[in-house]
Amino acid sequence: MKINISIIILSSLFFISCGNNSSSPINNSIDINKIEDNNQTNSELLEEDIINNSNSNIDNNISQNQAVLLSPTNYKIPFISSADKIKYLEAINLARSEAKDCGEGVGFVSGANPLTWNDDLFKAAFEHNYDMTNSNTFAHSGSGTIFDITGTKLSKSSNTEERIRNNHYLDEDKMVGVTTAGIGENLAGGQPTIEEAINSWINSPLHCKNLMDTNFKEMAISKVKNPNFREGDTQNSEYYWTHIFGYKNR
């Protein structure tokens, strides 16, 4: 069984290189059998239909902006409200529902299926925002510092797939009957609202392609405010966005 990975990155301030080419996404096929297990929305859908609250060690007493201030030894997955999940889902699914021209190299794409929320993907998304905010980095690769939670466990800089595994989206008991699976990631920095983040992705051909990919079925978004940002700072972002996509076909 293969997991296909499509990863691209966008900053409102500057592009960060993905590999040797800042405009090229990372595309890999991974044989999940060789890697140790880490032990749809619109107004017609009900809340329980669009939010998959998987068993996840989420602390209901702490927000994302509070959790990002914790030391690595006290690291916690923060609470995200159903209202925020629905807000993000509705914004993403509205964008996906409308056919659009993604621009040079991608071209016209038809409207895509709505996505549902997955808490395991949220845990991975927040973990990466936590790392980027505290390590003052902006890339798909983890910082390799103490703030790279998955990387610390692996004694190296983490990658997207490893963070998703570490947060249990690909656990063996959740992959029963799965024949193909895939994940994707978009990053953005600086945009204060989900609408502005989406507009940035839409206006970048490869981010638009990821956003409109009809293979994806699930998603999660983490947004954190950088506590170290100061007005006039041109080197760092005030906000960090990590948007993770996933699918499992049975």
Automatic annotation (TrEMBL):
Pfam families: CAP. InterPro entries: CAP_dom (IPR014044), CAP_sf (IPR035940). Gene3D superfamilies: CAP (3.40.33.10). Keywords: Membrane, Transmembrane. SUPFAM superfamilies: PR-1-like (SSF55797). Residues 110-243 form the SCP domain. This is Probable transmembrane protein. It comes from hydrothermal vent metagenome. The lineage of its organism: unclassified sequences, metagenomes, ecological metagenomes.
